[in-house]
Amino acid sequence: AAGVIQSPRHLIKEKRETATLKCYPIPRHDTVYWYQQGPGQDPQFLISFYEKMQSDKGSIPDRFSAQQFSDYHSELNMSSLELGDSALYFCASSPRPGQGRYEQYFGPGTRLTVT
Amino acid sequence: AQTVTQSQPEMSVQEAETVTLSCTYDTSENNYYLFWYKQPPSRQMILVIRQEAYKQQNATENRFSVNFQKAAKSFSLKISDSQLGDTAMYFCAFMKPGGGADGLTFGKGTHLIIQP
User: Fold this and answer.
1) Cα-Cα-Cα-Cα dihedral of B43, B44, B46, B52, to 10°?
2) Mean pLDDT in chain A?
3) Do A45 and B108 touch (CB under 8 A)?
4) Which of A13, A28, A50, B18 could pair with B101 as two cysteines, CB 3.0-4.6 Å apart?
5) B contacts of A98 (beta carbons < 8 Å)
6) With contact defined as beta carbons under 8 Å apart, do B114 and B13 qualify?
7) Average pLDDT estimate for B5-18
8) Mean pLDDT of the region B66-95
9) Lowest mean pLDDT across A40-49, A92-101, B67-76
């Protein structure tokens, strides 16, 4: 079965640079979520989109922005990178809310290292 | 805001044994969803099992089952006939279905080690 696709899988950036992470949800999933998992920590919810509109917002820094496109893929843009942004970034997708299925399926993650 | 607590940072059992991971949560909501996710060394987040709060019947998926006690706000995961491949971090997660796409709130996780 098709899974969530994230690219790139690994990314190395320097401080103050920008990074763009991409996420392609499971086919027919129109809801996308972004999470950040620091070393030894649990995933922290950043932001979600449903039908290309921002739906819920978590602990996303103002330096980060995200959007969902017409084909439902999503991009997380990160600017003025800091050492503390080094983490594993997950994208997850789920079927349309309200259809009785709320489970989120995670991609393999993008490992971002800021030096 | 919701909180999820996993009080066991690490557990170790022998292969083929049964193990129970605990999870408690705090919420004022009446309708919500609970999940257990597994994160093996590959760091992939794998959905293990889900439970809807309005359902009294405990969810079961093969060797995995939950004990959902809504009044006590408890959601434990039981793994029967444990296998070496069950070694992983296990995260309990809460979601309030607010009609949109709500994010998950995770516990700190339990590192489960299955010994041969």
Assistant:
1) 80
2) 93
3) no
4) A50
5) 99
6) yes
7) 97
8) 97
9) A92-101
Among A48, A103, A104, pick the best mutation site for testing chain B contact (most B Cβ within 10 A): A104
Nearest to A108 among B44, B95, B97 (CB): B44
Contact A42 B108 (CB under 8 A): yes
Start-to-end Cα distance in chain A: 36
Helix or strand holding residue B17 (H, E): none
β partners of residue B81: none
Nearest chain A Cα to B107, which residue?
A42
Beta carbons of A2 and A56 less than 8 angstroms apart: no
Q: Given an 8 Å threshold on Cβ–Cβ distance, is A102 in contact with B50? A: yes
Residue A7: which of A62, A59, A75 has the closest Cα? A75
Residues A39-54: what's their mean pLDDT? 93
Res A100 pLDDT > 80: no
